[in-house]
Specification:
With 510 residues, this protein is of the alpha/beta class. It folds into four domains: 165 residues, 2-Layer Sandwich (Beta-Lactamase), CATH 3.30.450; 165 residues, 3-Layer(aba) Sandwich (Rossmann fold), CATH 3.40.50.300; 60 residues, Helicase, Ruva Protein, domain 3, CATH 1.10.8; 63 residues, Arc Repressor Mutant, subunit A (Orthogonal Bundle). It has 18 helices and 17 strands. It has a six-stranded antiparallel sheet. Strand 5 and strand 6 form a beta hairpin. The protein is elongated and about 100 Å long. The chain binds adenosine-5'-triphosphate and magnesium ion.
């Protein structure tokens, strides 16, 4: 084929070209260009072995034959194939005449393509065989010994180049993953006060903790409900800590804070170039939580479309990055939380019933603080100690009456309100006794009234909204919302203003 010096020069050129590649697609192209220059062939292919499926896949096929049977992405099993033989023996295999003898599963296909000879070479990196280089030609017969030696050297260079590119790509992937995780963790540290475990000894709280202990070690989805500040997030973290997943990430997604339009990329990630501005591939929260727990906070606020996508992920564990046709399998435990009434949200069409049932497998309700007053002194002392040491204050204590008032107060903001109140009291403390200003502890009756008015407003708002929905926001006329509600249209208009209700944009022209 060529002299020894020529061979060396050609090989050096191949090596240099291969080594300059940084991604697999570029590498495949260069492999074809280079081996075209150095060996005559009609068909060249590269397969890589996958241990997972115990088979080989064609990553490159370049042929000048009019008939093509084994194309790119074709998969060949290890058993019974020539590539399998080469993989097992770590040696070249040559079939000199496919028209006469076809030993392996691929050979019939190659013969159909019109090939006479097939040479399969192992792609070896030290003792590992990555796959094969396959060179087919119309000509039959054994190749020269020098040509074979040369081909083996080319195969060896290709193997090292593939190995480098794969390592390089993996490093990049890990680097991206780390950067994202790091970014997320910094965010997370800023967000969380970690008070450790859940404090309380009431029967109600103990029941909650018992449920957490039961579900913790499993991978079952949990749905935590409870008023604001009752400790839903704290409990979600406790469940994660009780699971074998505790060494993996606990990733929180605040569904209410997701940016519209970016929800999916946030949850499922995106490929580079998936949309304007997506200049890097990004891992979604699902992938970040792989092996760990994904905490979907304020789940009731998730947009309906996203709910549908989430449901699909929960059903088959497959995540599709935005802009990618390939799905990634993830193993994620879901814990959802909300202070909203999801059943009511299903009634008004704002929450999907099928998603609800998927999440409702293991519901845990955290009772409000006013229903477990025994926990108040414990929590108050716990927070007092915490803030005392955090703010480096000398020893402080509650006066007898203070604790009494704390226990009788109704705590609409629950544990968080108590925590904030104690922090404020510690900052303001002028002596060794904690005082709490009356203005912070509204008497229960005033509060109940405020609650009732709030509820009334909410009821009115819902009623008006339902009517507007039914009339497609038509206000005037006998079929309009005002008439249905028994209101003067101008009264309805001012009420809408007071309640902050606006006609949705897509109905603006009606
Ligand atoms: N049993 C408890 N023991 C100790 N700290 C608690 C307990 N319950 C709640 N907390 C603390 O109270 C604060 C509020 O809790 P958390 O954020 O978990 O509430 P939430 O139910 O998620 O509230 P929201 O509905 O407003 O999101 C946190 O700082 C949390 O550490
Ligand atoms: Mg919360």
């Amino acid at each position: 084929m060529r002299d020894i010096e020529g061979n060396y020069r050609a090989l050096l050129a191949v090596t240099n070209a291969l080594n300059s590649q940084r991604d697999t697609d570029g590498l495949w192209r260069v492999i074809i260009e280079q081996i075209k220059k150095v060996v005559p062939w009609e068909r060249a292919g590269v397969t890589l072995y996958s241990a997972e499926s115990d088979s080989f896949r064609f990553y490159v096929v370049e042929t000048s034959m009019p008939t093509r049977v084994l194309q790119r992405d074709a998969v060949i099993p290890r058993a019974g194939s020539a590539v399998g033989w080469v993989y097992e023996h770590r040696r070249v295999h040559v079939r000199p005449d496919l028209t006469r003898e076809r030993l392996f599963v691929e050979d019939d296909f190659f013969a159909q393509e019109g090939l006479g000879r097939m040479i399969n070479l192992p792609l070896l990196v030290h003792d590992t065989c990555l796959g094969t280089l396959n060179i087919g030609s119309v000509q039959t017969g054994y190749p020269d010994v020098e040509d074979m030696e040369f081909l083996e050297q080319v195969a060896s260079q290709i193997a090292f180049a593939i190995d480098h590119v794969q390592a390089y790509e993996q490093i990049n992937r890990l680097r991206e993953e780390l950067a994202r995780e790091n970014e997320y963790l910094v965010e997370e540290i800023k967000l969380t006060h970690n008070f450790g475990t859940m404090v309380g000894k009431s029967v109600a709280l103990r029941q909650v903790l018992m449920l957490a202990q039961a579900v913790g070690p499993t991978s079952t989805a949990a749905l935590i409900t409870g008023e604001t500040g009752t400790g839903k997030e704290l409990l979600a973290r406790a469940i994660h800590e009780l699971s074998p997943r505790r060494h993996k990430a606990f990733i929180r997604v605040n569904c209410a804070a997701l940016l519209i339009g970016l929800v999916e990329s946030e949850l499922f990630g995106h490929e580079r170039g998936a949309f304007t501005g997506a200049d890097q591939c990004r891992l979604g929260r699902f992938e970040l939580a792989n092996g760990g727990t994904l905490f979907l906070d304020e789940i009731s606020e998730m947009p309906l479309e996203t709910q549908a996508k989430l449901l699909r992920v929960l059903e088959d564990g497959q995540v599709d990055r935005v802009g990618s046709s390939q799905s990634n399998q993830v193993d994620v435990r879901i814990i959802a939380a909300t202070n909203a009434d999801l059943v009511a949200a299903i009634g008004t069409g704002r929450f999907r019933a099928d998603l609800f049932y998927r999440l409702h497998v293991f519901p845990i309700v955290i009772p409000p603080l006013r229903d477990r007053p025994e926990d108040i002194p414990l929590l108050a002392r716990h927070f007092l100690e915490y803030f005392q040491s955090k703010l480096k204050r000398p020893r402080l204590d509650f006066g007898a009456q203070v604790m009494d008032r704390l226990v009788r107060y109704t705590w609409p903001g629950n544990v968080r309100e108590l925590q904030n109140m104690i922090e404020r009291a510690v900052i303001l403390a002028r002596s060794s006794t904690i005082v709490i200003d009356d203005q912070f502890l509204m008497p229960p009756s005033a509060l109940a009234k405020a609650d009732a008015t709030d509820n009334l407003h909410e009821l009115e708002r819902l009623h008006i909204l339902q009517m507007l929905d039914r009339t497609m926001w038509r206000i005037y006329g006998p079929d309009g919302a005002a008439a249905q509600l028994g209101l003067n249209p101008s009264t309805l208009r001012s009420r809408l203003k007071r309640l902050g209700l606006k006609r949705p944009v897509h109905l603006a022209s009606i």
